[in-house]
Each structure stands twice: as C-alpha cells, then as structure tokens.
Amino acid sequence: MTQQPESPQDLVGTFLPTIFENDAKGILADLLAQPGLAMHFMGFTEVQTMRAIRHVVGILEECYRAGHLKIAISHEDGRLYGYAMFFVHPDPAMSRYLHKIFVFKAYRGHGIGSQLLDGVLNYSQGTCLLCSHDLIPFYERAGLEFKGGFTPPSAQQGFALTRDMYADLALMGSPGTDGAAPVFMLNDDDIKQLLVS
C-alpha cells in the first residue's frame, strides 16, 4: 500500500475522475441534509443530479488545475483505497485546509484513514480542518490543537445558503498555527447554479 501526500501527477490523475465524482456526491448529500435546501434538491431528476455532480466536479477540477487543491492517495495495484483532499492558499502564512479524508467502504477498518491523515500532517507545515466537537479528542491524539469554534462566512459575504452546514464545528490546527486556512465552501452563486441544473 502506498500513501503519498503529493503522488506523482500521472498516478493521481488516473484516480481524479473517481475522487472528484465521489466528493461531489458527498457534497450534494450534505446539501440535501440541510433543511433550508432539502426541498430544492429532493425533487431532482437523475439528469438534474448528474448535472449538479458535473458542476461540482468542474469546481474541484478548476481548483486542482490552479494548484489550490492537492490530493494524497492510498492505492495498490491500480486499486484506490482512499484519498485525502486539502486546499492550499498562495500565501504561505495560511495553513492548508484538510477538506476530506475518505476511505472506500471495502477498505475501512485497516488504518488507511489514519495513515492518510498522518501523511498530510507530516507533509504540511500547518494544517487545519473542521470537525464535529465529538471528534476533537481523535484529532488531538493525531497532533492537532483545538483552535475554537468555526465561524462560517456571513450571508452578506455570499454564504447564506451554506453557512448552516458549517455551524457548530470545531476548528483544529497544527501546533503554532492561528487557524487561518482556505476553507472550501460552496457560495450562494454555486448553489444557485446547482439548482438550475
């Protein structure tokens, strides 16, 4: 099994369609779980759902091409076990934001998620992530510190439709970091594009 915080481009590239589609589906599921948005997404047809997935995939692809999204993978013999996605800001003073660690169901329970987390934390000078408060002890054992409750951007900043998804989350960060990180959130314009898909 291989874990590589920044695997060779061609190897990561072979798994990008799977990773981006999986993450897009996860984001749509999170949106569907929001009371203020559920009614809009519940009536989606299969065609509308596929368009929405492609739209989110397009956002992720754009971030990746621009160098703002990095991916670490766990794989063996052409099989993708799991991945970690983290966002970086051009300003080196900003911490990396660990957006997601995902291990495919068939490979869970073997420490792959912890290995991916260790790889990202060891690779990065500073990493932050958001988690529910019950996961604070887990991330503290991994070496992160509780930096406080996360304050989502305001409705006036263009996040009226998604800010509730991030309410009451804990901000965890590497020791010595101030918690400033490029948190990935869909803004109101992104959501409106999904709804007209």
TrEMBL record:
Q: Which residues form the signal peptide?
A: none
Question: What is the recorded name of this protein?
Answer: GNAT family N-acetyltransferase
The record's section on InterPro entries has: Acyl_CoA_acyltransferase, GNAT_dom
Top-level taxon: Bacteria
- GO molecular function of the protein, one example? acyltransferase activity, transferring groups other than amino-acyl groups
Residues crossing the lipid bilayer are none
> Pfam family example for this protein?
Acetyltransf_7
Q: Which organism is it from?
A: Pseudomonas shahriarae
CDD domains xrefs: NAT_SF
Report the PROSITE patterns cross-referenced here.
GNAT (PS51186)
Can you give the residue ranges of the N-acetyltransferase domain? 27-177
